[in-house]
Write a structure and sequence with these properties.
The chain is of the alpha/beta class. It has one domain: Alpha-Beta Barrel (TIM Barrel). The chain is built from 10 helices and 16 strands. It has helices at about 75-90, 105-115, 135-140, 145-155, 170-180, 220-230, 245-255, 265-270, 275-285, 310; strands at about 5, 10, 15-20, 40, 60, 65-70, 95-100, 120-125, 160-165, 185-190, 195, 200, 205, 210-215, 240, 260-265. An 8-stranded parallel barrel has the order 3-4-7-8-9-10-15-16, surrounded by 6 helices. A 4-stranded antiparallel β-sheet has the order 5-6-14-11, with no helix packed on it. Strands 1-2 form a two-stranded antiparallel ribbon. β1 (about 5) and β2 (about 10) form a beta hairpin. The mean pLDDT is about 95. The structure holds ligand RRO. The site of ligand RRO has 16 residues, from loops.
Length: about 325
Amino acid sequence: MKESFNLRNVEFKNRILVASGTFGYGDEVPDLVDIAKLGGIVTKSLSMKPRDGNPSPRITETSSGMLNSIGLANIGVHKFINEKLPTLKKSNSTIIANIAASSVEEYCSVLELLDGQEGVHGFEINVSCPNVKEGGLSFGTDVKLVSLITKELRKRTQKPLIIKLTPNVTHISDFARACETEGADAVSVINTVIGMSVNINTRKPKIATTTGGLSGPAIKPIALAKVYETCNAIKIPVIGIGGITSWEDAVEFFIVGASMVQIGTANFINPATGISVVEGVKQYCEKNGFDDVEQIIKSLQTDKTISIVDSWL
Ligand code: RRO
């Protein structure tokens, strides 16, 4: 059975990746998790300079989910190249560097530094962090800025360029179209959903920045709807993310149209979730007589004439 997937000039072993911010820099997972079995690893977002992130508390559990306001804490691109990449290169994994920035210039400079590194196979551009005042959502909710960032980065790399979109907009398909027009190879859908949680005894928000990004099973139906909308608006591949904890969840994303998926919050419970999803998807395909995952992608049985989302497209 064919499990691999090609994006531009890179062959991924399979279609299951681990999501940015949920797997560190790929070097902290226990030895029992064989990361080479995954389709790839997306790094924590990297900025030019190291960042401490937001004040604590910055994580809280919610019903079927998790609220975070990490605020882009990261070691900075130079330390990543010098201290993390050498180990990652030896891991036989496909590495996608996630980049975040507070200006178009910073995105370009970080990408240029990483583009020269042979251990970096592609880029995921974060224009959707809900937890920073500069950059983040102020970029990701402005179609013109998303277009500009994609256009400038496309000029600077021949490696796969993936733009990670926010669900915190009315029509995510408008943003996906802009990315496609400016030469992105794929879009990742979705980053976290803005959320809030309150301690009723202190009457204070449970996280210091008041609002944060909601992830985990609570957002899976939102993610599926956004992935479905996006897949019907563009021809480039869509990478589905949002609340996947099992192979059955991944198959749902493939059926609505995702070409690849990312496992995020589930990694905090079990960092080997991605590996069991790889196995489960393979068995599902074999049992049902599919010899390539491609055969289930966009196979949703729907009546487009009465579908609300299809009327937006
Ligand atoms: O670091 C964060 O607070 C963060 C980021 Br960069 C992101 O893209 N999404 C999120 O939920 N948190």
